[in-house]
Amino acid sequence: MIPSRGEQREDAVLRATLELLAEIGYGSLTMDAVAARAKASKATIYRRWSGKAQLVTAAIERHTAAADHPAPDTGTLRGDLLGLLRPMRDRLTGESAALVLGLLTAMRDDATLAAAVRARLIGVKRDAFAPALRRAAGRGEIAAGADHELIAEVASALLFSRLFVTGEPLDDAFLGRLADAVILPLVHGATP
């Protein structure tokens, strides 16, 4: 199905917003800059979004919706974990890295923006682990009741630390160590 002119215009505006966020950050982002990058008028943008926070929220939601993938079912918890960690790593080391860095400071000062980022960028990761853990519990690999939110937070924090703090590789060997030395012991230590 061919997108309508309005859908094409919206896509161009949201794509321009994400590009500018990654390049110059939230604080320097202006509606003028988005309009120029998207080749749209400011009036067109303001008809759809009332301000910068709403526009950025929509762009984040579009970006993360496009990146959402169902948890893989490999038949083992370890395989499912690696199937979740690889795309998380790939998104983080790709365009999401610059996007996240562009938003971190702004989140402290804008509660609406912070809520949107937490719900989408972080919430999606938290929810991604739940199906894999339920399947593992159903297969008898783990006890039911593992804290998928804590597991996602720990995994995300270690990926983030490697990329932005230590600069150490985020290769498949590290993902295997993350699964084997951190996540699986955390899951096996869970109590329902």
TrEMBL record:
<dbReference type="InterPro" id="IPR011075">
    <property type="entry name" value="TetR_C"/>
</dbReference>
<keyword id="KW-0804">Transcription</keyword>
<dbReference type="InterPro" id="IPR036271">
    <property type="entry name" value="Tet_transcr_reg_TetR-rel_C_sf"/>
</dbReference>
<dbReference type="InterPro" id="IPR050109">
    <property type="entry name" value="HTH-type_TetR-like_transc_reg"/>
</dbReference>
<dbReference type="Pfam" id="PF16859">
    <property type="entry name" value="TetR_C_11"/>
</dbReference>
<dbReference type="GO" id="GO:0003700">
    <property type="term" value="F:DNA-binding transcription factor activity"/>
</dbReference>
<dbReference type="InterPro" id="IPR009057">
    <property type="entry name" value="Homeodomain-like_sf"/>
</dbReference>
<feature type="DNA-binding region" description="H-T-H motif">
    <location>
        <begin position="30"/>
        <end position="49"/>
    </location>
</feature>
<dbReference type="InterPro" id="IPR023772">
    <property type="entry name" value="DNA-bd_HTH_TetR-type_CS"/>
</dbReference>
<dbReference type="Pfam" id="PF00440">
    <property type="entry name" value="TetR_N"/>
</dbReference>
<keyword id="KW-0238">DNA-binding</keyword>
<dbReference type="GO" id="GO:0000976">
    <property type="term" value="F:transcription cis-regulatory region binding"/>
</dbReference>
<feature type="domain" description="HTH tetR-type">
    <location>
        <begin position="7"/>
        <end position="67"/>
    </location>
</feature>
<keyword id="KW-0805">Transcription regulation</keyword>
<dbReference type="InterPro" id="IPR001647">
    <property type="entry name" value="HTH_TetR"/>
</dbReference>
<protein>
    <submittedName>
        <fullName>DNA-binding transcriptional regulator, AcrR family</fullName>
    </submittedName>
</protein>
